[in-house]
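Structural prep section.
Before we set up the soaks we want a predicted structure of the protein with flavin-adenine dinucleotide in place, mainly to decide which crystallisation condition to try first. Input record follows.
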Amino acid sequence: MAGRMKIIICLLRNDLRYHDNEVLFWAHKNATNVIPLYCFDPRHYKSTYNFGFPKTGPHRLKFLLESVEDLRKTLQSVGSGLVVRSGQPEDVVPQLIQQFGKDEVAAVALQEEVTSEELDVEAGLQQSCSKLGVQLKKFWGSTLYHRQDVPFDPQGVPNVYTEFRKKVENRSHIRPPINMPNSLKGLPQGTEEGDIPTFSSFGVKDPGSDSRSAFPFRGGESTGLARIEDYFWKSDCISQYKETRNGLIGSEYSTKFAAWLAHGCVSPRKIHAEVKRYEKERTANQSTYWVIFELIWRDYFKYVAMKFGNKMFALNGLLDVQKQWTKNKRWFDAWSKGLTGVPFVDANMREVAATGFMSNRGRQNVASFLAKDLCLDWRLGAEWFEQMLVDHDVTSNYGNWLYSAGVGNDPRESRKFNMIKQGLDYDPQGDYIRLWIPELKGIKGGAIHMPWTLSNAELNQAGVSLGETYPSPIVTAPEWSRHTSRPVSDKVKLISVILHI
Ligand SMILES: Cc1cc2nc3c(=O)[nH]c(=O)nc-3n(C[C@H](O)[C@H](O)[C@H](O)COP(=O)(O)OP(=O)(O)OC[C@H]3O[C@@H](n4cnc5c(N)ncnc54)[C@H](O)[C@@H]3O)c2cc1C
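Run finished without errors. Recording the tokens verbatim:
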């Protein structure tokens, strides 16, 4: 392309950042003018594939609007800007090419994705670009390990996570983040940046904020980079991550990077580079490594999606496992509204509805409950999460759901979580339940995890009336009875042993 310096249009999708952005870097090197473009694609605001939930819920929309606004400011500060349009990229990009004249546009560049809806956009763009004689250039930038650097082709991606991790750790490397220029080649003269839409354009209300939220953050590259600074360098929380990561309350028990990663506001390679710097300058321990270990899970699901394609969305999963699934609407409604009568499930489901975030511990449990206790079609859960999560990432979401439903490629696939044991292990005093289910707050200690086992007198005293102020459980599992909500004193235990009761 040397000698034919012209305009390059950079279609930004899940790479809403300036740092470590190869699309913008390449365009800057090869064009006289760069047009960073973001399209609010109407398909993202329609319904989920099978069950018709809104595809983008208000919490994620909020994060996205904030991220786009932040990126525009950052790009303006480096002498460029962000063109924003509402419409499908397959329509908007050719319109822009025509506006500037196809001979003036050297290329369209974008970051590649791996799942079908995103690949359809790429195929559509390829067609319209070819018709206009404009090159479409794709870059890989969403994973820690670059596609060209992993020691397998897509069909050879190991099925089991540990094997995947060991192979990439031993036989690959993580590239350093790309050093971006201090200023970016400007927009062509006369470019209209366009307004960023507001909530009302989507017919959605601003969800506001909830003081109980574990994710009290704004979207955008600036807040994402500030989060790394805080979590690593200011609070040193990273040095205890492995011990705290299964927490349930507050913003500091885990990194909370997921939403920034899902929107590409922060690059995984940037996080990796900061972990390595932290390990060199402060401390290297199991916790610092574990952040990378978790990011490799994220990579793993992207590579699994490349291998299995649309099987990732199939009821029978990756290996075509036949199971009995139901679509009991009453049960699904109870699950999604946090009214199953099982406090650990309900608290988590209420949290995600109120804030767009749920801890990993919570997600593992509510997913197991839906798929293994209620035997509901797991895609109901996945599509509900797709709507709700501020950090929805198609491969992490569907990959984890496949796993939880036992239709992925996991050797531990028959694993079923025990809601009561999990509640007592991770929320022994019931503080998390009291935070999200105020109607149970009169029940003291861990007994709050199984209100149905309390006597009428105890329930009365706590101001709880099962079936009225809080539901009776819609199902119970036999293994729950192993965990009593009452602390059994040693004396009672001894008597039981002696009497064999
Ligand atoms: C049913 C279910 C659905 C999920 N859906 C999503 C989703 O849509 N988007 C998403 O990013 N994560 C998803 N996860 C994975 C995980 O729960 C979240 O990444 C994590 O809770 C986000 O909080 P954090 O950023 O503080 O994570 P941390 O514990 O701080 O982990 C650091 C990073 O590692 C990655 N990571 C951690 N655990 C996983 C995992 N199990 N799978 C893939 N990546 C992981 C994430 O990028 C995360 O930001 C899902 C898990 C389950 C069980």
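Observations: The beta strands are 6-12, 31-40, 83-86, 105-111, 135-139.
Flagged for discussion at group meeting.
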